[in-house]
Structures are given as structure tokens and as C-alpha cells.
Amino acid sequence: TASAGKLGWVSFLVSRRPYFLVLFGSTINHDLSKLFNELWDADVNRFVPGKDYTIALQGKAGFVQPGNSDAARDGASEPLFRNVNEERLRNTKTYAAFVSLLDNYETSTGVAEVVTPEETAENNCFLDAILETKVMKIVHQYLVNKNLSKSNLQDFKSQLYTIWFQLYTRAEGKGPDSCGFEHVFVGETKQGQDILGLHNWVQFYLQEKHNHIDYKGYVARKKKSRPDEDDQVLTLQFSWKGLVKPMGGSFIGVSPEFEFALYTIVFLQSGEHCTREKVRIEEYDIQIVVYRHGQHIGTAYPVLLSSNNKDLY
Q1: How far apart (Å, rounded) are the C-alpha atoms in residues 103 and 27?
Q2: Which of 73, 227, 303, 313 is the most buried (most CB within 10 A)?
Q3: Per the database record, which ranges form the EndoU domain (predicted)?
Q4: Closest CA to 312 of 237, 257, 250, 233
Q5: Is 245 in the active site?
Q6: Whole-model pTM?
Q7: Of residues 34, 60, 190, 245, which has the active-site annotation?
Q8: Parallel, antiparallel or unpaired: strands 2-3 and 21-23
Q9: Is residue 210 annotated as a catalytic residue, yes or no?
Q10: pLDDT, tens digit, for every residue of 236-288?
Q11: Model pLDDT for residues 157-189, shown as the tens digit of each residue
């Protein structure tokens, strides 16, 4: 038995049996942690903090209820992103295909989406791009081995399309108005009262660049101080479309295929309405949260539980 002090970790190794990592009484999924670290290492398109982008965390966000952004105290006078290597965004196939999707949606729930043939083509182009990456090749083989996906690549692509891009109704009686991709990566608003989703750093950066997002500050964990500007998992507070999101978890710098990979795996491995998997990726102890909407993703996001960063203790 070994203890890791202030992290509250305990690890068990008995004979040749599998071991489990325990964090504050909750079991870390060792198998998924191993897989997700393999995906992390394979993510050659991930942006490197301090090299491909820099952020300015600034102040800690205060407590605020969801709703009108005027109620939020602004803990950050400057944008979150100081700079991003836009040339790399434009010239990396998966990012370029991803960015082309961000203007395809009506962000208000209750307003039926109209998907044009051009938008369908863009969806397919994006899936084709990510399926060429090592990250998604690892995912595909893993899911085939688990009997969760078919070995034929076109079948796998169709499965991903259903999970992420097939429209469903979020506001009852209003027609198909949402999909997993829109919610997680683009963001939505609900009846002019709440921000839903928007857990992607590229969308955040582009919306911030065009003065559509106002970063309000970071959200620290209870009894902890500030995160580090090299951290690639953060919890943020921001306003968008006249509304404030009190806290939203997001990976920073990772590729679109990496996020697709994690959320798809968690979604397919569980039939529960809400699945929370605790994993350790690099230095981060994270809870991956995925909500199911029938055969589609309702929402998905990371929650940072702890980090090796000394500033967090």
C-alpha cells in the first residue's frame, strides 16, 4: 500500500491482480486512463502552451447564477487567449475542417435546424479528416475489440455521424433543434436564459476574437488557489450572447479528434443517461462527463479534479 500525501491517493497491488487508483474515495478507471494517455501521446495535432498559444488567466471568477451577464463580476479585464497560432489552425486538416462547422448552427434551442447539402458535406469532410488520424485509428480498433463498433470504416463513420451530427429535439414540440456537435463544440442558448454546452477551446478563442465572448475569470476548485497557464484542462466563467455561464469545463489546446475520441468512447461504453468516468491523463485527474440523449450525445465535458501543478495546493 502506498500513499501520495496531499493528493489523497491510495494504490493497491495484490499479486498479479489489476490495481485501482483511489482519489478521495472514488475509483480511477485505470483501463480508460491507459487508453486516454495513449491517445494523448498520439495527438500530434495538440497545440503546445507557450508555443502554439498563450493564455492570461487573470482573476478568479466570483459566484453568479446563470442568466443575464450584467450580474457577473468581471475578474478578467483582458481576453483569455493572448495569441493562437492561426496559421497552424488553418493548415492542420482536422482543425480547418472543424472550424468550417462552427457557423452551421442556429444556437437558440427551440429553433429548428436546417441542414443544407453543403453542411452535410462539411460534416462528412470533418469525419473523414479525423478518421485519418492516429488518435481515431486507435479508438476505432479499441471499439471494435470491445464489440462496440464495426470493423468497416464506413460503418464506423456512420456510427459517429449518428452520435454527433444527427439532429434531435432539445425543446419539445419545436422540431429537431440540436445535436451533440452543436451542443458540445459550438454552444447553445436556452430560451434566452442559459448558455448550454460550448466546451471547446477553438470556438472559445474564435468567439473571443470577434468580441462575442467575454472571459470573466477562472473557477478554482474548493480550498484551492489558481491554476497554471500551462494547464490544458480549465474551468472558466464567461458571458456569451448576453448571458453568463457560471462555470464550464474545457480542454485547452487539444485537437478536435482527441475530444471526439474521449467522449465517443465514454458514450459507447455506457448506456446510462449520465456517465462520469474518473481518469488520470498526464498530470491531470479528470472526470469525463457524458450525458446521453437517446442514441446521441446530449453533452460532454471534462471536470478537473486535481493536478500536479504546485500552484494548486
Answers
A1: 39
A2: 227
A3: 28-306
A4: 233
A5: yes
A6: 0.86
A7: 245
A8: unpaired
A9: no
A10: 999 898 888 888 999 999 999 999 999 999 999 999 999 999 999 998 899 99
A11: 999 999 999 988 876 666 787 889 988 999 888
